[in-house]
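Exam revision sheet. Question 4 asks you to relate a sequence to its structure. Input first:
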Amino acid sequence: QVQLVESGGGLVQPGGSLRLSCVFSGSIFSIFRMGWYRQAAGKQRELVAAITPSGSTNYADSAKGRFTISKDNAKNTVYLQMNSLKPEDTAVYYCNAGFARNDFWGQGTQVTVSS
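Answer key, structure tokens:
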């Protein structure tokens, strides 16, 4: 069974940076498409960034130019580097792993951007 464990969230001031990590276990990491989603209070969960098994990436418009998704197949880990953070980036960030019609989710990590 796939398990995803996120870390790296916290409180940061506007303009600051955070790096989220998601450690994958329970299957073959390199064949999964990986993504970061977020859900702000009272809003629907939305895609932030995704990376395919081959390394192709895509980003939400709100993340382009500020966030970078990457992965390390040797460490079974996907990262989300977030720079120039804004208060509107405040949300619970979830790691997602997908393969065929199967989707798996982590427990989420809180990111709060506030002065």
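Marking note for examiners. The chain has a mean pLDDT of 97.
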